[in-house]
Write a structure and sequence with these properties.
heterodimer; A: 278 residues; mainly alpha; B: 253 residues; alpha/beta; Rossmann fold; six-stranded mixed β-sheet; three-stranded antiparallel β-sheet; 8 helices; globular
Chain lengths: 278, 253
């Protein structure tokens, strides 16, 4: 662990990685709690995979035509678009929801792979998109990550009561005069933004694990939604920081280490709950 | 003269080509307690959803408190079946009751008034001492009372119940009906139930729904009516909750 702490003082990329992990943990804990209690991990998964399309297209435009877009911005656009489509289909469409989600999931990935294959140079981008590369986070990325974090926290702070009401009992919320469609869309947009943050840290493939495992572990330990959010944030912090330190020390892949940590946290929570019962 | 709170005129509703309700006409006056009964699939829930403005009639009209249902729905306290809830959802009793206030503000934290109304609603259903408990840890009867408190917290003028005694033991069932009786002093109450016998002990009129809708004062419910509602020959079996094989002697507990 000493190596990690020593290098943390010298290398800015390591500091950026640590800050990215901390910032991401905040929205991950909050939005992960919503995703878990509303049982929509499959929606989060579809949005996550769809971001590859945005990242691939943005990278292509950036490299081939010198467009001023970054893959991270492309991911934001793709995720928000996917969230809007899913919300429309859920409330107004007549198609099967899982069919549409599979379509978004795979078409998004296909577009991404298509653009990456057309982009000149080495295709090592693909690996970092799929499995995350927290050590590659730049200062500019950090600003965007911070801004997205602020949006998520602000929206949830203002609309916490409405969102919990819609998640707990959609019908009652509708009868009370709440626009269920609007708040469902808002929640999906927040999920989209959080997914983008997590893609940076753990990669497309492992976003869902990071959204659900700490939140589900927290859900076993506490009994109210906002308690669950705070506990989940704490557990996320443990996973991202611990995962980063361990992976740096032993030269493991960072994303995978963080997810394995998250899995262990979840199983510890289950074990703790079992022990408390007996 | 009591005010009319629900006025349904020649209303019909169908899902595609399947007629669910045909030519329904009835009125309900304020502070009445009405039971809605009928066989499964007869259209009870559909009627309730129409009154709540969640479905639109194909023809005819529904007026609630003088306006169309979708404009009146925030003045209706809806108490759904408690078994529909996710037992893993992390909410406390107070959290659930506060949800009755959510439609009244644009966002942000609850006001002091919201908290006071929720506290009063909890006292009304005798669950004030349980407000910090997790909703999932409650008994069926307590959950039902929590949902009633949520409806009361919204300062509703009408209360709609969907099977209030489903998944509730007979003692809690009695408890809930006594609570309804008390609330009925101030509010108009509509109770959807499959249990004709039990409902008819408490309500002033019964709306019978099986595609067609009839409204009767409770004293008229006899074998003939029941046969009309359920569309088959039925033997009346007394279904009191306290009876013995020898006969229906009431036992004082």
């Amino acid at each position: 662990m000493g190596q990690f702490l020593r290098d943390l003082q010298t290398y800015s990329f390591l500091q950026y990685a640590l800050i990215a992990g901390l910032l991401t943990s905040i929205s991950c804990g909050i939005i992960g709690s919503y995703v878990t209690v509303r049982r929509i991990t499959y929606i989060a998964g579809a949005i996550a995979h769809c971001t590859l399309g945005g990242m691939g297209a943005a990278r292509f435009l950036q490299k081939e035509y010198a467009f001023p877009v970054t893959p991270l911005q492309g991911a934001v656009a793709a995720a928000l678009l996917a969230a809007c489509i899913i919300a429309m289909v859920k409330h107004y469409g007549s198609q099967r929801e899982d069919t549409v989600l599979s379509a978004i999931y795979s078409i998004g990935m296909a577009i991404g792979i298509f653009f990456i294959s057309r982009t000149s140079g080495y295709n090592d981008d693909l690996m970092s998109y799929l499995f995350g590369d927290i050590l590659m986070v730049s200062q500019k990325d950090l600003l965007l990550i911070g801004a997205l974090d602020l949006i998520v926290v602000g929206v949830v702070f203002i609309f916490y009561n409405k969102l919990i009401s819609v998640c707990f009992d959609e019908e009652f919320a509708r009868i009370s005069g709440i626009s269920v469609e609007l708040f469902d869309l808002l929640l999906l947009l927040m999920i989209a933004l959080t997914v983008v943050l997590l893609v940076q840290v753990v990669g497309i493939v492992m976003v869902v694990a990071m959204l659900t495992l700490p939140a589900a572990g927290a859900g076993l330990l506490v009994k109210r939604l906002w308690h669950m959010m705070f506990t989940a944030i704490l557990l996320c912090l443990v996973c991202t920081t611990g995962g980063l330190a361990i992976s740096y020390q032993f030269d493991f892949p960072a994303g995978a280490t963080i997810i394995i940590m998250a899995g262990m946290v979840y199983f510890c929570a289950i074990a703790f709950k079992r022990l408390k019962k007996t | 003269m009591k005010k009319t709170v629900i006025d349904v005129q020649n209303m019909s509703f169908s899902f595609g080509s399947l007629a669910v309700l045909e030519d329904v006409t009835f009125t309900i006056k304020e502070r009445e307690m009405i039971g809605v009964v009928g066989p499964n699939g007869g259209g009870k829930t559909t009627l309730l959803r129409l009154l709540l403005g969640l479905l639109k009639p194909n023809s005819g009209s529904i007026t609630i408190l003088g306006v169309p249902p979708e404009k009146a729905s925030h003045r209706i306290g809806y108490v759904p079946q408690q078994r529909l809830f996710d037992p893993l959802f992390p909410v406390s009793v107070l959290d659930v009751v506060m949800m009755g206030r959510v439609g009244k503000c644009w966002g942000g934290p609850f006001t002091k008034e919201d908290r006071e109304l929720a506290a009063q609603a909890l006292r009304d259903v005798d669950l004030y001492h349980k407000q910090q408990a997790a909703f999932a840890d409650l008994s069926g009867g307590q959950r039902q009372r929590t949902l009633i408190a949520r409806a009361l917290a919204s300062a509703a003028e009408l209360l709609f119940f969907d099977e209030p005694t489903a998944n509730v033991d007979s003692f809690a069932e009695q408890n809930i009906y006594n609570l309804l009786k008390k609330l009925n002093e101030k509010l108009t109450i509509i109770v959807v139930s499959h249990d004709v016998g039990f409902v008819s002990k408490y309500v002033s009129s019964v709306v019978c729904v099986n595609r067609l809708v009839h409204i009767h004062p409770t004293c008229e419910i006899e074998g003939k009516n029941i046969k009309d509602i359920y569309g088959a020959d039925l033997a009346m079996v007394r279904h009191d909750h306290r009876c013995s094989e020898k006969g229906h002697t009431w036992v004082n507990f």
